[in-house]
Amino acid sequence: MRTRYAFLLSIPLAAAALVYSPDASACGGCFPPPPPPGQSQSIVTDHRMILSVSQSQTTLYDQIQFQGNPAEFAWVLPISGTVQIGLSSDVVFNTLHTVTQSSVVEPPRNCPPPPNCNFGNSDRSAEAAPSAGSTSADAGAGGVDVLKREVVGPYATVQLASTDPNALTDWLTQNGFQIPTDIQPVIAQYVNEKFNFLALKLRPGAGVNSMRPVRVTTTGAGATLPLRMVAAGTGAQVGVALWIVGEGRYEPQNFPTFQITSDDLTWDWAAGSSDFKQLRAAKAAPLNGRGWEVESSIAINEGQFQNWITGADRQGGTPSYTPQTDDQGRIVKTAEQVRQEDMQALFANMQSTRVTRVRSDLARAALAEDLVVHAPPGQEVLPNVRQPKKELGQPTCPIYDPNTCQQTGTAPRDEAIAKANASSTGESFSCTTSASRTSFGTFATAGSLAGFFGLALVRARRRRKTAAK
Predict the structure, then answer these.
(1) Which of 12, 148, 306, 430 could pair covalently with 220 via S-S, beta carbons 3.0-4.6 A apart?
(2) Cα dihedral across residues 357, 361, 366, 370: positive or negative
């Protein structure tokens, strides 16, 4: 069974905090227990992350998709110092996805209009083509300091510090966190780099359906995603989609990147689609599972975005945000307060907001180093809508009878243009011209008749005058 969950977290200047939670989080290490006999190990297959970068703090959301039972998972992530933990909602992911998703639109057909039929310009653009988220007592593992322990909604959380990787691993194991053997050296690296850790699990009695996105806030500005911990629970490859929210454009610094522009794309008129997916695969292939595609970088309006978030609840269904309760079930924050805090963390008093969307299908070997995100010198806007500049084949265009202005058939563009040009230079009149000639001829005939009768009347009068004399 494949299930999608999300998490949110905030990272300090030199670190990226990770949080894993079924509806929102930045997943650090996802540590499932060993599977029962005859059952396969749960595997994380995809992440959707949001990284909010400001001068005062950095916030990361992570929605994961995995095969297995979400109740089996526990989460551990490296943090800097101590952090503030809150709840979020996967509606944030869905809204960002809708606003920034890439699309490829059909090029103009450039079909010739009926000659002089006054039908207006028949050029048109087609619709967008499919483009292409139980706490035990401090078991006696020496060398571990419990910095903070709290209940956040359905989660029991604990923040830890240690200078001894073995002691930390022992503490996590004794408190129900199953640490894979290949991840133990990763934890040791983070310990040696002076990171603390946040460990998070569902509280006893909290069902899977109550799981909510988690937000972890650390003061300081910086953007480093702890991909080394993301390796926990993944298979040979993991897909990652990342939205970076900031006052400018951000993109990966220590990994190779590529883009797909309108100039790169070819539109296949027979298939009614572009080569976007094939081109993406071709550009990613030589990067050996390390490449990141910079999909778009566009401005969004904070007020409009918040209106979309609050409007989602008015459509019915499961509320986007729910009240936060303590371990006694008492409400400590209303749903509105939870939403407001989440939006404050996402936008962090930014003067203007840009969202850069990047994605990758990372090989497990690429998770050997953390991802560093930076603001590149070029701050160009990258639209998320592309219109291919190259064509394969030609669109089908209508052919018109130049006399009646009625469509008589269709043909490829060049043939339709040739027929239209032939009609415009031939002996037959176009619809508008024919109508003009008929109208003019009518008025001319009427005028001639009026002149004829007028002349005859004058002559008759002259005759009568002559006769009178």
Answers:
(1) 12
(2) positive
Phi/psi of residue 446, nearest 5 degrees? -60, -40
Please, where are the H alpha helices in 101-175? 165-174
CA-CA distance, 228 to 168, in Å (whole number)?
A: 17
pTM over 0.85: no
- Cα-Cα-Cα-Cα dihedral of 198, 4, 362, 276, to 10°? -140
Range of the domain at 362: 2-391
Amino acid found at 419:
K
Strand partners, 266: 390
Number of folded domains in the chain?
1
Q: Is residue 92 part of a domain?
A: yes
Question: In angstroms, rounded to a whole number, what is the distance separating the alpha carbons of residues 226 and 201?
Answer: 19
CA distances from 62 to 14, 25, 52, 221, 240 (A): 19, 4, 12, 18, 9
Do 50 and 243 touch, CB atoms closer than 8 A? yes
Q: Which residue has the higher pLDDT, 286 or 128?
A: 286
Report pLDDT digits (tens) over 118-127: 544 444 333 3
378 domain-assigned: yes
Report yes or no: 127 and 251 within 8 Å, Cβ to Cβ: no
266-309 pLDDT per residue, tens = 999 999 999 999 999 999 999 999 999 999 999 999 999 999 88
- Could you tell me which residues come within 8 angstroms of residue 242 by beta carbon, excluding any fewer than 6 positions away? 48, 49, 50, 51, 225, 357, 358, 359
3-state secondary structure of 167: helix
On whether residue 462 sits in a domain, the answer given is no
The span from the CA of 79 to the CA of 217, in Å, is 10
Q: Is the dihedral of CA 110, 112, 116, 118 positive or negative?
A: negative
- In this model, does residue 80 exceed pLDDT 50? yes
Please report whether residue 374 resides in a domain. Answer: yes
Q: What pLDDT does residue 31 have?
A: 52
pLDDT at 260: 96
**Predicted local confidence at residue 145, as pLDDT:** 95
Task: State whether residue 246 is helix, strand or coil.
Answer: strand
Listed in sequence order, the residues at least 6 apart from 199 whose beta carbon sits closer than 8 Å to its beta carbon are: 74, 75, 76, 157, 158, 159, 160, 172, 175, 177
- Kindly give the interhelix angle for 91-100 and 302-314, rounded to the nearest 10 degrees: 120
Tokens of 46: 């995809």
> Residues 89, 23: contact at Cβ < 8 Å?
yes
Helix 302-314 to helix 335-347 angle (10° resolution) is 150
369 vs 255, 353, 374, CA distance in Å? 10, 29, 16
430 pLDDT more than 60: no
